[in-house]
Amino acid sequence: MNELRQDILHCIGNTSLLALRNIPPKNGSRILLKLESENPTGSMKDRMALAMIEGAEADGRLAADGSVVEYTAGSTGVSLSLICAVKGYPLHIVTSDAFAREKLDHMKILGARLQIVRSESGGLTEKLTHDMIEAARIIAEKPGSFWTDQLNNKDQIAAYHKMAEEIWMQTSGQIDGFVQSVGTAASLRGTAEGLRRHKDQIRIVAVEPSESPVLSGGRAGAHKIDGVGAGFVVPLWQEDIADQIEQVSTEEAVAMALRLAREEGLFAGTSTGGNVIAALRLAKQLGPDATIVTVMCDTGMKYLSKVLSTCVCN
Q1: Where are the domains of the chain?
Q2: Which of 64, 148, 182, 291 sits at a 20 to 30 Å CA gap from 24?
Q3: CATH topology for 8-38+160-311?
Q4: Is the whole model's pTM more than 0.85, yes or no?
Q5: What is the pLDDT of residues 122-140, one digit of tens each?
Q6: pLDDT for 18-52, tens place per residue?
Q7: Domain 45-147 classified CATH 2.60.40.10?
């Protein structure tokens, strides 16, 4: 029987690990999906948002009467909105019309104040990211403000060390590869560090949009995979994190997200679609006895009015 939880924040983490049954690699290897959609806001970002707030509380950067500021594509903002609602902190979010409307509405419902930065093309670009960061920096100059600054905040890495421990326990140590898309790079970095404490030979694969392959040394471009591919090499990225980088297009990511829904009953966002595409590629490389873990970053319910809705057919 499940224990009584103190509050909703105690429901973060300890998510399920599920084997794909109908979209398996053709060579007989296994792909396991960490269902981060089980977190309270339906996103893995609940982990890092809680870590950033609790880290700032612990060392005094965030006072009891303080407020919180962040720029976000949406999922981090929703997670911060939940945590600030529970803890009683006013939250000012900088975001954009480039991102899914569901996320923006979710933040408002949880009590966040939003500042919308208009996009040029409806897609995420390097300029849009920098414009959002600058807007957040200006707001954070107000006395008593704490800027979580997710692209630079190292407190979040520890949250993904915990996720790595969950994965290690759930697989009984039988894991050969880990695949994750790169937004702030904290989830890839933290999970990789945690898993390699147990088994250094685990192959780590980073995923980025093929339209903006900056980690691979390419040029920045616009894409429509929410939450990943900032358009520049993010500060938390380290070149030795990943053994390889896989590029996945928005079109491929959307198509796989729809396959996951229709063939596995898993309604996920486009970043998850990209993860599964890259995991299938890694499975082909590692062979029939391999076990590969990747992440269902969030629920597709966050994207009904965005990319996924344009692809639904009767």
Answers
A1: 8-38+160-311, 45-147
A2: 182
A3: Rossmann fold (3.40.50)
A4: yes
A5: 777 888 989 999 999 999 9
A6: 999 999 898 989 999 999 999 999 999 999 999 99
A7: no
